[in-house]
Write a structure and sequence with these properties.
This protein is α+β, with helices and mostly antiparallel strands. About 45% of the residues lie in helices and about 15% in strands. α6 packs across α9. The termini are far apart. InterPro entries: Aminoglycoside_PTrfase (IPR002575), Kinase-like_dom_sf (IPR011009).
């Protein structure tokens, strides 16, 4: 297929990217462009992604800019850098924190984009998904105390989602999708899971995947996103979404096999421990830092 794409034929250097969990085939063209070959059954969804990237590119210079969309493929600008999961290990704690600050600030910029007019309310959409996951959780062979803890915390606190804004969501915001170049944050990538809803929901994976890589980086994201000290309302929503993410991760992990489940189960226990079984809102890893 790629031979029929003009920009591919004119490229002098084509490099295949094998890393990542996406169904896309990815190629770098002349170190300037990224070609994504996507499954044809996703064409409508990917067209929405492409058009949304056009709008986001007016807000941010640190995302891939859309160049060309075709049946089964899209071409974006290529952002240089190494994914944070790898690159952060070689940075000092101060450099990690500063990179996180920049990433949090950039995410907040993207959250300026409103959902399409007439999009269903966040509370309705998220509550329906959460209820489905909680029903699936009951079917798993898990400690009933753990299941009860999650069930009660979520049901007791889900009303705070009412009247939350419907904004752009990256929906996969964690170090593997954040780039570091020359020891600085250089971009956000992989928008194929994008959605619409409460922007704070985009931070739900911090305690799961970001803390495991770098606590200073994760602190920086929170501080950069919040501008000032995170508010009580911020932590209430953040912790609720963490609990919901634990549930969805356990359900999804069980379907993916024992190895994936064990990994997600251990991450889930860490999140629950960070919040002292959800008796406290602010996770134990968070500390306001000075630079």
């Amino acid at each position: 297929m790629i031979e029929s794409i003009p920009m591919v034929n004119s490229a002098e250097v084509i490099t295949k990217i094998d890393k990542g969990f996406s169904r896309d085939q990815k190629y770098i063209l002349d170190y300037k462009y990224l070609l994504r070959i996507y499954p044809i059954d996703e064409i409508d969804k990917r067209k929405v992604e492409f058009e949304t990237l056009k709008k986001l590119a007016e807000i941010s210079n640190l995302i891939p800019k859309p160049i060309e969309f075709g049946k089964g493929y899209m071409i974006l600008t290529y952002l240089p850098g190494e994914d944070g999961e790898e690159a952060l290990r070689s940075l000092t704690k101060q450099e990690q924190y500063i990179a996180g600050l920049s990433a949090g600030r950039e995410l907040r910029k993207l959250h300026q984009l409103d959902a399409p007019q007439g999009y269903p309310s966040w509370y309705k959409v998220k509550k329906e998904k959460s209820d489905n996951y909680l029903n699936e959780l009951k079917k798993l062979d898990l400690d009933q105390g753990l299941c009860s803890l999650l069930q009660h915390y979520i049901k007791d606190n889900e009303p705070i989602m009412k009247d939350r804004p419907n904004k752009f969501q990256h929906d996969d915001f964690h170090p593997s999708n954040l780039l570091i170049y020359q020891k600085k944050f250089s971009g956000i990538i992989d928008f194929q899971r994008m959605d619409w809803g409460d922007p704070i929901h985009d931070l739900q994976k911090l305690g799961f995947f970001s803390v495991q890589v770098s606590i200073p980086f994760t602190n920086g994201i929170v501080d950069g996103y919040s501008k000032e000290k995170p508010t009580q309302a911020f932590w209430e929503l953040y912790t609720l979404y963490c609990a919901m993410h634990v549930v969805s991760a356990l359900v999804w992990g069980k379907k993916m096999g024992s190895e994936q489940f064990d990994l997600l189960y251990n991450h889930s226990l860490s999140v629950i421990d960070d919040h002292d079984h959800f008796s406290k809102l602010i996770p134990s890893w968070y500390e306001k830092q000075q630079i």
